[in-house]
Design goal:
- The protein is α/β, with parallel strands linked by helices.
- Helix 3 links the parallel strand 1 and strand 2.
- Helix 8 packs across helix 9 and helix 12 crosses helix 13.
């Protein structure tokens, strides 16, 4: 009993519902979920949370999750989005049972609408959208009936047919369900269930001129497919009674008992310093404020992938924030923390210098080159080692040298000693400056008895610096990405979201150097530039022009800002 209680507590509330329903034999012990995206844009991290729930719960409890495209609005939908959605789901590590489309049911939904008209439960309304909105009333005031509410059934049938024949212009007529204009739930006040859209559909062509609304198509699609648990986000809570109403009408008086879909809701994923609105994300892309849907600053799944996040990191983040019945604003730093924890285990360690200054070892033999052994991943010895070449002239980070350093500065300063990683201990002897005071070269001497791995070479020094050999490195472009917006919650800000963009969200460094080993591992997805952060090859990177994107720094630097 104690073990059973512990297992129950480890389940989120949706999983607990599923376990109980399976135990009670509902739907004959079947578990079937669905992920129903509208193909009108690319999926973002908010969808990732829904994907993890819909597919994850089916996977965990022996059910099936199908993919259904909610393609009921041809004005915004495209096959490009369909393919991108499938790619993102697979990248996250999930597999669907079958692929469906709401358009598969256009004829069945049309026939259902005709039946509602014949039963006096739906009518054609010719009011404008503004008039309909006004006569619906308010949450505290009952609505007023449309002047077209009681038009004859035959007239409604003829007009509905004309709507679909192309004779009626967009916006001139809609089909509304006749329910209850005084219902305290505004969704019951004669909701619109069909509207005219004179645009070719990417699957059905010009067969239809009328298209069902989401509330009319969604529950019925679940019913047609045999969905048992229709899981969605909290904004659909007030829609649930209407979801059940149309299924009750669709079943034509038959007692479904426990053999019907039920809707359950969880909190959506809101993330600081970004937006989840598809409209705003589309505007960013169309206005070229970002470099496409997969810009590494975007919260899209393809953007996270291009930035260097692993699918495991995204799923880890979703697990960290959990599922509740209360909306919250999740800290972007949690997403980055999940990435660091994951990438620390899988990233290939390499050396890169982003802001270079020449380091000359004055007592090292000219022309001599040594091969130093570098661990590929200290977290996993099985990942092996690789060779990095050491010579008299190196590149080091400009920030790692200070001529007049404070007391607790443990990097390179005149008279001080540091270890060059995987190589020798060196003592700084001075520097060369340009007329404007800029450091041009740094000088040091090495101790040949301190080579890493040499017996007795472990003399303690307080600092270890990374480097690349000036004659054995490759030039590279490095892109440092940061938060897309400069305010914590841009969605709640009254200003235009374009005004809130972080002007420092991308810094391009074109004068960088990386060890030549990187030319041989361009298929490696996850890298750690030692002492700097986690990086990945950008899709634009070529053998002749290496380009890297920063995934996340080694530590959270935003909090300090």
């Amino acid at each position: 009993m104690e073990t059973e209680e512990k297992e129950k507590k480890s389940l989120n509330f949706i999983e607990q519902i599923v376990v109980k329903d399976l135990k009670d034999g509902k739907n004959d012990g079947r578990l079937q979920t669905r992920f129903p995206p509208e193909p009108n844009g690319y999926l973002h991290i908010g969808h990732a949370k829904a994907i993890c729930m819909d597919f994850g719960v089916a996977e965990k409890f022996g059910g099936v999750c199908n993919l259904r495209f909610d393609d009921t609005n041809p004005q915004k939908e495209d096959t490009e989005y369909v393919e991108a959605i499938k790619e993102d789901i697979q990248w996250l590590g999930f597999k669907w049972g079958r692929i469906y489309h709401a358009s598969d049911y256009f004829q069945q939904l049309y026939d259902f609408a005709v039946r509602l008209i014949k039963e006096g439960k739906a009518y054609i309304d010719e009011q404008t959208s503004e008039e309909i909105a006004q006569q619906k009333g308010t949450p505290t005031q009952a609505g007023t009936e449309s002047p077209y509410r009681n038009r004859p059934i035959e007239e409604n049938l003829q007009l509905f047919e004309r709507m679909n024949s192309g004779e009626v212009p967009e916006g001139a007529m809609v089909l509304r369900a006749k329910i209850d204009m005084a219902n305290p739930n505004m969704h019951f006040r004669d909701p619109i269930i069909y509207r005219i859209i004179n645009k070719e559909h990417h699957r059905t062509g010009d067969r239809w001129k009328i298209y069902p609304m989401y509330d009319f198509a969604h529950g019925q699609s679940d019913y047609f497919e045999g969905v048992t648990h229709s899981i969605c986000t909290l904004e659909f809570v007030p829609h649930r009674p209407l979801y059940d109403y149309f299924i009750d009408e669709l079943k034509e008086g038959r007692d479904l008992d426990d053999h019907r879909p039920h809707q359950f809701e969880f909190n959506r994923l809101n993330l600081t310093y970004t937006v989840m609105s598809k409209r705003k994300l589309l505007a960013l892309v169309q206005e070229k404020l970002v470099d496409g849907w997969d810009d590494p600053r975007m919260p899209t799944i393809c953007g996270l992938r291009r930035r260097g996040y692993s699918p495991e990191a995204v799923r880890k983040f979703v697990d960290m924030i959990g599922y509740t019945k209360f909306d919250a604003l999740n800290d972007y730093a949690m997403l980055e923390a999940a990435a660091r924890e994951d990438l620390n285990q899988r990233a290939q360690r390499v050396s890169a210098v982003l802001n270079p200054v020449k380091l000359i070892i004055t007592n090292y033999p000219e022309g001599q080159v040594e091969e130093m052994v570098a661990l590929n991943n200290p977290e996993n010895e099985a990942d092996g080692t690789h060779i990095i070449r050491f010579s008299r002239e190196l590149w080091m980070e400009r920030e790692d040298f200070m001529e007049n350093a404070p007391k607790k500065y443990f990097r390179m300063t005149p008279g001080g000693e540091v270890r060059l990683k995987n190589a020798y201990i060196v003592k700084c002897t001075g520097c060369k400056k340009a007329a404007d005071g800029t450091i041009e070269e740094v000088y040091c001497e090495y101790d040949p008895q301190t080579k890493t791995g040499m017996e007795g070479a472990n003399r303690k020094v307080k600092g270890t610096l990374h480097w690349v050999s000036a004659d054995h490195c490759l030039p590279a472009e490095v892109r440092l990405y940061d938060r897309l917006f400069e305010v914590e919650n841009p969605s709640a800000d009254e200003r235009d979201f374009r005004e809130l963009l972080n002007k420092d969200s991308l810094q391009v460094l074109s004068n960088c150097y990386v060890e030549e080993y990187l030319a041989d591992i361009q298929d490696c997805k996850y890298l750690q530039f030692q002492r700097i952060g986690y990086f990945t090859f950008d899709k634009s990177s070529t053998a002749g022009h290496l380009v890297f994107n920063r995934t996340v720094g080694l530590r959270d630097s935003w909090a300090k800002k």
